[in-house]
Write a structure and sequence with these properties.
With 201 residues, the protein is α/β, with parallel strands linked by helices. The protein has one domain (10-199): Rossmann fold (3-Layer(aba) Sandwich), CATH 3.40.50. It is 48% helix and 15% strand. The protein has helices at residues 21-32, 39-43, 53-63, 76-85, 96-113, 125-129, 135-155, 170-179, 191-194, and strands at residues 10-15, 36-38, 44-45, 49-50, 69-72, 88-92, 163-167, 197-199. The longest helix has 21 residues, at 135-155. The chain is globular. The termini are close together.
Length: 201
């Protein structure tokens, strides 16, 4: 098992659609007793209507007003708010085939059971497979562009304060999560400590 990672008290979980961001964020919230917020729940209104940018950002600001939280999602409209306040970023950087397999399993469950999502929205066969907004197509479009974007952002000085944990497989994620046992007591940290990067196998 990899050593217990230095995990902070304000955590952002990012990754492609279907990577399991919300599942991991919930698990971290339960393990570390952190309030959890899902950006999708703050963004989507009824009938898959996006919230106005100002409304969405106000909701995000309220969700991260405290000193302890875990938030999952990739929305660029919220990135400056989130990443600036966070002390830890967990990046689920899985292969595309893994993403598609997880998307298929999740999508079939949601469509068949008509599981209610945010604001009672529900996934459909058309939305899952047969439209320009297909989640499979979206994952394909974002896989490499988002990987390049995040790598570039995390090399810059603006987010040098983040402790980054880049996990490349579900197995690496499970091992990493098993090693996270408690939130350390707040203390001043050096820049070198904050730049720790944990990589999965």
């Amino acid at each position: 098992m990899i050593p217990a990672p230095p995990i902070g008290q304000r955590i952002v979980v990012v990754g492609n659609t279907g990577s399991g961001k919300t599942t991991l964020a919930r698990a971290l919230g339960q393990r570390l007793d952190l309030p959890h917020a899902e950006l999708d729940a703050l963004y989507w209104e009824a009938n898959w209507t996006p919230a106005e940018t100002a409304v969405f950002q106000a909701r995000v600001s309220q969700a991260i007003a405290g000193e302890r939280w875990v938030v999952d999602g990739n929305y660029s409209k919220a990135r400056d708010l989130l990443w600036a306040r966070a002390d830890t970023l967990v990046w689920l950087d899985y292969p595309l085939l893994v993403i598609w397999r997880q998307l298929l399993r999740r999508g079939l469950r949601r469509v068949i059971t008509q599981e209610p999502l945010w604001q009672e929205n529900r996934e459909t066969w058309r939305g899952l497979f047969f439209s320009r907004e297909s989640l499979f197509l979206w994952a394909l479009q974002k896989q490499w562009s988002r990987r390049r974007q995040y790598a570039a952002l995390l090399r810059g000085p603006e987010y040098a304060h983040l402790a980054v944990h880049r996990l490349r497989t579900p197995r690496a994620m499970r091992r990493w999560l098993a090693a996270v046992t408690a939130v350390p007591a707040p203390r001043a940290a050096s820049r070198g400590e904050n730049e720790n990067v944990a990589r999965g196998d």
